[in-house]
Amino acid sequence: MCGIGGIFNTDLPDDELKAALARMERSMLHRGPDEGGTVVLSQPRGGLAARRLSIVDLEHGGQPLGNEDGTAFIVLNGEIYNHQSLRDKLTSGGHRFRGHSDTEASLHLYEDHDVEFLKQLQGMFALAIYDTRKRRLLLARDGPGMKPLYYANTARGLLFASEAGALFATRLIQPSPDPEAIDTYLASGFIPAPASAFRGVAKLRAGQYLIADSTGLRTGEFWKYRYATPSAGEDSPHELEEKLRHAVRSHLAADVPVGVLISGGWDSSLIATFAAAIAGVRLKTFSVVFPDSSDADESRYSRMMARHLGTDHFEVEFRAAMMPDLMAKVSKHTEEPCASAPLGVQYVLAGLVGAHVKTVLSGEGADELFGGYDRFRVSYPYLLRRFVPRAPARLASLCFGPSRLRRGLRVLGAADERTADAEFERMFTPADKRRLLRPEFCAGGPDTQAVLIGSDVLETCPDTLARRLAFDFSGRLADAVLFSGDKMSMANSLEIRMPFLDAAVVEFALRLPSRWKVHGGREKVVLSHLARRYLPREIAARRKKGLGYPHGLWLAPPCKRYARELLLDNARSGPFDAKYLQHALARWMSRGNTAASAVSKLVVLQSWWNEAFHGSGL
Known about the structure:
Layout: E1 2-8, H1 14-27, E2 35-42, E3 45-52, E4 65-66, E5 72-80, H2 83-92, H3 102-113, E6 123-131, E7 136-141, E8 150-154, E9 157-161, H4 164-169, H5 179-188, E10 202-203, E11 208-213, E12 216-221, H6 236-252, E13 258-261, H7 266-279, E14 284-289, H8 299-309, E15 312-317, H9 323-334, H10 343-354, E16 359-361, H11 366-370, H12 380-384, H13 390-397, H14 404-413, H15 417-425, H16 430-436, H17 455-458, H18 464-491, E17 495-497, H19 503-510, H20 525-534, H21 537-540, H22 557-570, H23 578-589, H24 593-614
Parallel strand pairs: 13-14, 13-16, 14-15, 16-17
Antiparallel strand pairs: 1-3, 1-9, 2-3, 4-5, 5-6, 6-7, 7-11, 8-9, 8-10, 11-12
Helix pairs in contact: 2-3, 6-7, 6-20, 7-20, 9-24, 10-18, 13-14, 14-15, 22-23, 22-24
């Protein structure tokens, strides 16, 4: 696990290039505290930088790493779980290895298969290969989107890095807000790739690669979320178990101890169960508890699971009163506004885990693959769409502020099913944003277009559930949940591995019929079979409870006071219209949790703004 960066095709003099690469490396120290390195290359002129959190091949896994004759170099952030089998084939083909790292195997695989090598990598990764023979740079990001990668094409060269701050550390570009990205954020709660919160800075899409050479930049896809022909029988639970056990085994491979996150729900409990059986050693498990919130607290079940498995169990508390002190930290490390994941909770939990182990397994991804959220079971607005005229529903929605009723009306009034999915998740409407934002930050464009699934993906969806799962997996999971999980874990020098997002498990889910996901009012049907077989009865009987902030967090006095002070004190130096915000805040804060959730999205945006442009900055 690393922080990677580089500069390609630049005219910088030697001393300036070396200094810029060194600043990139130092800016990502938290992502790799164990060691760092840079290399300057001349064909074409540029270089690579990396920070390393050493987990595999502690002695020989340093980066940047070159091939046998020094004509190609790689930096890789992540883990390639099938690197040993790849190494065996490469060795028999004549490649010589200096160590046993997954990074070295990936570089040699590229030498043999060019861009097609990406299809053979099983793991989570963002990587860059600087090929001096072909005078080109290759960037790529894993299929589900577990590792982020930013880039900016500037007059002084192509810059890329795991974090936006590393681009700005070169001093070749300066951070500037992107109104269109802010527009999408206020609608959806996150900023989907390829956009970023900064003008002129892009993010590589999940499953995408980019090639830079003398002809310019071009992108392509080596993986995309697409459904296969449904194929399943009564042995589907057994097939999933085999694939999940294999994934857990491969994800446990490391030269350092590996822990497990447990919440007391099915996903993490199954991962922990299989890990305990495979590891052969006493596991360390970790969870977050919510002493002030009985609705969010799952400590009874996580402790039950820890006792059941006999693990060394560690807990950390999260309280609403902690949020005011946490906001600046999480905003600094997230680097972009993201309100679709509980950043504060993720940060506190990662801090606990990082103090004990370098890497940990989690159950992330199961809900998006197998239909774990309540909203997938019952969706009344969708059922009513065939009976309600579109235009009157859209008109009626204008009469309400942030509320479930307004959301339902906008779903009913959406032009098509893809748009309805985006409206179901929408918080602020275009009319809201014209009142909220100062004129120079009003983009006025199609603010949800970027989060819609593509028509090519839609064509493969066999039913409504499949379409909505595709929307969640390709959007919120990749660009909010996994994005924030990477940022919060790496802020604490921690790697999170996700067996449910293993290539074989994802491919299984994409050919599994919807009746095995949500059926008869039950979610994750195929996983329920494994839960009943392997988990304590009380845990197997539970319904889904996602990791999130406690209900009513932003109505708690410390958070309510903090939100008001942050927004009103900074309104004249941020993106918001101060006069409108002052009146709207009092109204929203008195309307309950739905309206308070709208306030939280503004708090996240303003906190990011302060860190990026007025605070310690990026």
